[in-house]
Amino acid sequence: MSMLKEFKEFAVKGNVMDMAVGIIVGAAFGKIVSSFVGDVVMPPIGLLLGGVNFTDLAFVLQEAAGDTTAVTLNYGKFAQTVIDFVIVAGAVFVAVKTINSMKKSEEAAPAEPVVEPEPSKEEVLLSEIRDLLKART
């Protein structure tokens, strides 16, 4: 089998395509969450803390001098990233919990009892003949 044909079979399999779609949707969801945290959640929190912009919070380790730029420890950006993570983790948790509860409700649903069809007249007659023959011997 040629390498190209083998790759084509691999790339078109369902689970590879599902994974690719999941990664693309996940990346887009990450951008939405980052925007939500940066543009909706953090400004009110910064306002409550006295008008602080979290992305600007940093410790200056070395001041800028001449052509060298300042060396900073950007803990505000880190805090925003942690909040992004918590929101994404919470959303994934809720999604997985919802999916699991839907699976459990499907499993817990009682299966309809299997109703066996009534035997036909021929089967009843043949059963009676069989029983009579057994009784004779």
Structure commentary:
With 137 residues, the protein is mainly α. The protein has a domain at 3-84: Non-ribosomal Peptide Synthetase Peptidyl Carrier Protein, Chain A (Orthogonal Bundle). 69% of the residues lie in helices and 5% in strands. The chain has four helices and two strands, in the order H-H-E-E-H-H. Strands 1-2 form a two-stranded antiparallel ribbon. Homopentamer. This is Large-conductance mechanosensitive channel. Belongs to the MscL family.
Quick take:
Channel that opens in response to stretch forces in the membrane lipid bilayer. May participate in the regulation of osmotic pressure changes within the cell. This protein is mainly α and 137 residues long.
Give a quick set of tags describing it:
Non-ribosomal Peptide Synthetase Peptidyl Carrier Protein, Chain A; 2 strands; two-stranded antiparallel sheet; ion channel; 5% strand; ion transport; 137 residues; cell membrane; transmembrane; mechanosensitive monoatomic ion channel activity; mainly alpha
